[in-house]
Every structure is written in structure tokens, then in C-alpha cells.
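Researcher: Good morning. I'm working through a list of sequences from a screen, and I'd like to move beyond sequence-only analysis. For each chain I'm collecting a predicted structure so we can compare shapes side by side. This is the next one on the list. No need for commentary yet; just the structure.
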Amino acid sequence: MKHYLITDPSFYGSSSDSLESLLNAVFSKNIPNLALFRDKQTSDYCPLAQTFIEVCRNYNVSKVLLHCDYRLAVALKADGVHLTSIQFETIPLAKALGLYVIISTHTHEEALKAQALGADAITYSPIFASPNKGEPKGLEDLKEIVDKIRVPIFALGGIVTQEQITAVEECGAYGFASIRYFIS
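Model: Good morning. C-alpha cells for this chain:
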């Protein structure tokens, strides 16, 4: 079961120092297989992304990703990009540049589209109740989509306990992605 950390500025701060400090604290307890720098509100995304990449490299995180911007991911030598559910047309562009591509999906149709366009993996959400993310899909729906596609699926949404991780693993998910699991 792969572990995928996603940042959020409300937990990691919006300065390089706070980001580095909080990542060090998180990684001292649990080093994820993948990590995504996601901050939709900062005007200093590039320097924060650079700090994020450096700290992740220091801890040997296997895949370090940036949110949305595949060109910046290439420029900063990230391993990949995590695209939003409105960026499907970007999958082939990012793949052509050698990036590992994950895209957010919320329906079976989106998951199938991501697979057809060559995404390396998807997040599928929300599985459990998560703040401001709508009605949870639940484990049965997760199992259905796992059985339907070949692309690795990271279950996302409301995953904060070991019991939830075990449940998504039993559904056949490749891994889980979370913000809050890693900071608890």
C-alpha cells in the first residue's frame, strides 16, 4: 500500500521555513512513497515548491510532485505532476516531457478517461467524509472502480486512520492519499 502525502498551507504554512520545519516533523514519523506540494493560494509557489522538493529529496521520497503546473515540475526537476480533474488534455503534454502523471478523478467516467489518455495513476475521491468535498463515494464504489480499470488508484478523502487505510487496501487500491493522516 503506497502512501501519498498532499500538503495544504493551513497545516504546512506559507513560508519556506514553516514548510521545511513541518515537513521535517512529518517525515520524522512517516516517510511517504509520494508527496505533492499543493498550495492554491500563495503567490510564492515556485520558491516554496523548491523547498518542498529539496526536503523530500533529503528524505528519499520516491516521487515528488507539483500541483497543476507541468512546466514548473520540469523546470524544478520534480518527478511528476498532479493534475486537477479539469486538466485531462494536459496528460499527454506532461507525459511527453517524461513526468509521472497523477490526475484527480471523481467519477468512473473520469477514471476511464485518465486511463485512456495515459495517466500513470489517479486519485479517486472522496472515499470517506472530508471537509468541503461532497458526499463520500464509499468503499463499495472504490472496489467497483478498482475492478474496472488498470491504472493504479490512490483512494483519497477523509483517510485519517489505520482502519480506513486497511479498508481501502482490502478494496484493492494501489495506495491512499491524504493531507490529515500525515499530520496527526
